[in-house]
Fold each of these.
Amino acid sequence: MEVINTLEVKYAQKFYGPFQAVKDINLTVEKGEIYALLGHNGAGKSTLIKMILGLVKASAGMIEIEGLNYDAKNKEIKKRVGYLPERMNFYDNLTAWETISFYAKLKGITRKRCEEVLEQVGLREAEHRRVGTFSKGMQQRLGLAQAIIHKPDLLVLDEPTTGLDPIGILELKAMIRNWNKEGTTILFSSHNLNDVEELAQRIGIMNRGEMIAQGSLAELQDRLGLPTKIKIDL
Ligand code: ATP
């Protein structure tokens, strides 16, 4: 049977001690979709993303990627998911090329594919510079190259626009659109509706660990009375 949904989250919960960071979240991301998780800092977006990635164990609920349950097929799922964390940790002394080719070697990925992804993220000319000399935007690009290098079905980006200048944000949006056109399903988080409108086909709004609304931008504008062109942070 063909799998229609790339990601299925059902009644996911996460407790840190007595504190509940994620409360009964249901979320479906369809194959080929760009879905944005929107919410204030501390809303629970990163925790939910880490649960989806299998980096944080859910206290309850079910998460499936391409119809596979995380507990059962962890390794298989890792091959199908790419992840850009909120904060990246690179070795400052390595060049971009060394960073990406080291990672590629671990995953059995070719040199040609390394060149291709560095090209896609616009780092070919800087590939022999040390990562420690990179701006936040350039480190972001390297993180994206690493996240997409194994051609994942699902690309998960945690707050990818944070710390980028307006041009960096436009370029990031173009990359996301291109990868999506090539067939990659995308889930990303943001605290700024400006960054998600035009890009996401559907948006889920999180607040204090709960999913308070989901739908297209037009549906959310109708239901929640959001302005048609949003100029403020939610
Ligand atoms: P941000 O963009 O600031 O990361 P977020 O929406 O991604 O915001 P989370 O990082 O998921 O939110 O945090 C949700 C809540 O869970 C916050 O109140 C946070 O303090 C708490 N929290 C996150 N990680 C832990 C942890 N390891 N232990 C205890 N509490 C945590």
Amino acid sequence: MTAVMDSSYPNKALTNTRFSDLKPPLSEPLLEALITAGFELCTPVQAATIPLLCSFKDVAVDAATGSGKTLAFLVPLVEILRRASKPPSPHQVMGLILSPTRELSSQIYNVAQPFFSVLPNVKPVLLVGGSGIKADVNKLEAEGANLLIGTPGRIYDVMERVESLDFRNLEILILDEADRLLELGFQKQITSIICRLPKLRRTGLFSATQTEAVEELSKAGLRNPVRVEVRAEA
Ligand code: ADP
Ligand code: MG
């Protein structure tokens, strides 16, 4: 694999694999959205992870900060939700992304923004602490949501309180920054959330360090995961 280093992001080596070269192929609208957002070549973690998640495999990914993990899970998530045979009903949650902090959750939501147009039938919602939960609960009851992005604390609370949300058809769960999720003490909420999700789903776990706790979480939440390990090049 030829690697081109971008000095502003020391860990972001680009491969010579284009998003349009990946197999199974990504859909045309998603490829167009990637190009419009300025993404043409994959980073190593993207080239390795996207085909796996797109072909029904669970993945446990260990790659340094800055290696491009966000698109490594957003691209397959968008592709998988796009493939759904019929549009979800308003309260059917099809995708769930758990991230350790309010800031990181908002960042993911912002990176995902240009791709929401590829999913006109999917309503995304950002769910983080800091503001009162009542507003989130009322809004979700009234309007529903098909993709939840947020912190485990707020997402668990919402699952407890909004009975109309239906997770039975969930396609994909992403645990981003799994090492930090556990450092911040979210183990219990994550386990409770996973208990309420269907077993037949895809799960991606992303981490910058491989700890014993991450390994435990991977055992509890993933099915025969493929390990993807990308070490920063010297
Ligand atoms: P990580 O989650 O692994 O820390 P990010 O997903 O936040 O890394 O990506 C780090 C930076 O690399 C971001 O600025 C992002 O826009 C950029 N980036 C990611 N993938 C690509 C790509 N395929 N081409 C160009 N830049 C990319
Ligand atoms: Mg990240």
Amino acid sequence: SSAQIGVTGLAVMGRNLARNFARNGFTVAVHNRTAAKARALVDEFGDEGEFVYTETAKDFVAALERPRRLVVMVKAGEPTDAVIKEFAPLLEPGDMIVDGGNAHFADTRRRERELRELGIHFVGTGVSGGEEGALNGPSIMPGGSAESYAALGPMLEKISAKAADGSPCTAHIGPDGAGHFVKMVHNGIEYADMQLIAEAYQLLREVAGYSPAEIADIFRTWNRGRLDSYLIEITAEVLAHVDAATGKPFVDVVADRAEQKGTGRWTVQIALDLGVPVSGIAEAVFARSVSGHTELRAASRDLAGPVAEPLSKEAAAAFADRVEQALYASKIVSYTQGFHEIAAGSAEYGWDIDLGAVASIWRGGCIIRAAFLDRIRAAYDARADLPSLLADEGFAREIGAAQDDWRAVLVAATQQGVPAPGFAAALAYYDALRAERLPAALTQGQRDYFGAHTYRRTDREGSFHTLWGGDRSEVEA
Ligand code: NBP
């Protein structure tokens, strides 16, 4: 038993994570259901560090020093349960099973509870950054017990990405499913970020009349400012890419149907359960869904729309500046909504999640890494009980400064018939929160009328009902 850590499940993610551990000086036992993959890993990358090839589950467990740290990187869902079922009987109290797959946090809570009874620490861990991140430093979001973090944290800190200030992009998120919950919301925010960028692109193309190559340059410029982020950077790369077979812009030869694996959808489903408005993330999930309804789209192609009016060169440049404002303002709203969901999950499940720490560990390694996250961390550092990111003075000032342009972009989008559901949902959220009065008062009246659901008054305590079918006098409910 010489390995400090073991990785089972050696597809792209597990293999790269195992190599990352080895490159950082840890001795890594490797195992895979199909043992040939473990063999191949050692044959191919054995010179990168210390690997211990193991063939059977028993050999694998025997190779690990105690308490054992066993990282599972298999397909989420049933395969994860199958692996737990295989390994749990071979482990001893104090050992750790670290699930680095994209598990649903409810599954993680169940697995943690079941394994806790055996004295085994189950550490549901969000890993972001794709295969590149797994190899060179991902953002890591471990849940599970504080005790398990004490034994595991230093290793994760070593293999994780580092933010610009050198701090590791990992921290103990909270008990049981907290890590997978935060990873889920990370992915939801990623969907929203991608959708907002996609809308900005579409508006620059169809309203301002820019080519993909020109838009790539605009994104490169934006990437030197406050929108500096991995997603903006790769957007410029994708837009500048030319298809070798046709010579056309790559974006023009890719089928316009976006796919999804499910974490964005989970983020919205859970938000509905928690009663948290994540309209920006929801619109992003729905936008992918709309794009995939080929028949619906074909059947709707002849619906009437406005005739587009091309902008002059000067007007196009001014419009691009406005789109940057709209994108930035909408991005603030997406993160406001996402962090609200994390705060709500934390309260519901008693996780006590440090929102500033979450922003901090997303600064490197993960898909949504951005300079912007430093600002979010600073906002929570200044005030840990910040009720909303929009309550932060700095963000409030910036979104206030952006609002005229944000509105102008949506006017143009509406007039020219270009869908911008992410921008629109974000602005509607902003305006709803600002509003002195919402039409919810009318909604309550309707509910009381047809269902006697009662309402509260602005001027006195208590619940009331109006006798709508009778003399319309009010009674206390
Ligand atoms: P996959 O999700 O494609 O899983 C393949 C691995 O699962 C193989 O090692 C396979 O073993 C193993 N496996 C399966 Br399938 N069923 C099994 C079973 N019943 N018992 C034991 N092993 C089983 O691999 P991946 O793309 O590397 O992702 C691994 C995890 O990381 C997933 O949960 C994924 O959601 C998550 N994740 C992926 C990314 C990414 O960018 N790809 C990013 C972040 C997180 P075999 O070789 O014997 O078939």
Amino acid sequence: MASSTAITKIDLGADGFKKIASGKVREIFEIDAQTLLFVATDRISAYDVILDNGIPQKGALLTQLSAHWFKLIASWLPDLRTHFLSTTLPPGLPSSLPFQQLQRRSMLVDRLRILPLESIVRGYITGSAWAEYSKSGTVHGILMPKGLRESQRLEKPIWTPSTKAEVGGKDENISPEAARELIGEAVARRVEEASLAIYEKAHAYAAERGIIIADTKFEFGGDVLTGEVVLVDEVLTPDSSRFWPADQYEVGRSQVSYDKQYLRDWLTSSGLKGKEGVSMPEEVVAETGKKYREAYEKLTDSKWSDIA
Ligand code: ATP
Ligand code: MG
């Protein structure tokens, strides 16, 4: 059982590295002009609101899961460059910091110029894609076969990009055509090919381990010097993907979410859905933590050892 308390804020202090951004879950620090340190906190959001308390070790679990995928992707697609450098902390951190905690939740990455696009791949029709299809028979403007049912597996995974909104904004689904206009034909083709290739490999890999990756979002950077397209951000975590438990999968209805179902159900049943300033009770924290651990263990074929 998790013994540690959740880490929801990370400050490396005056002697540490400069924080350059803070997302819903991660804090980003600058190491130097070429290198960033991503630190995942234990914060959790549901229905677009961040809960007051966190899930102990969630950040470490997600960082280690992402690192696992980066290594797998390097073996599957050796020609695709990624920003992943290591999960070892650089020297120069103040000794007052909880080193072991930080270590497991940190990732050193190459700093890149990010393409203004969320590269989504969908293998199943759900969420905003299902909503659009139900209305117009299309998904991101792509005409789909008639008679699809909710959560149905698509004959072939599709590339369905969206814009990358500014902080606080909302990403907008766009057609592959519009994406090509946004980032250019050649880069778009490379991003599409890479995204589909990773998704197909990862889907098969996860399916063997009892998890359906229904859809996922990648981000890419461009190397201004070489013109190369580089896979960045986090990859194939429950935060960037829809994971479904394979043994509960059923076409024709919405699916339970692997990680946040317990939390969402509790928020809904207690009338707190969408409210700010909510703290999860111990039971919700424990049950949610269990799911993150389970996803990590299934997908990495290894046991998670708690950090004190
Ligand atoms: P949220 O995920 O909370 O909606 P967010 O995506 O802005 O917001 P994070 O995911 O915490 O926040 O932060 C990651 C940010 O870093 C993103 O803006 C992402 O595009 C950017 N990023 C990812 N990889 C790199 C990289 N290699 N170099 C520079 N920026 C990167
Ligand atoms: Mg993000």
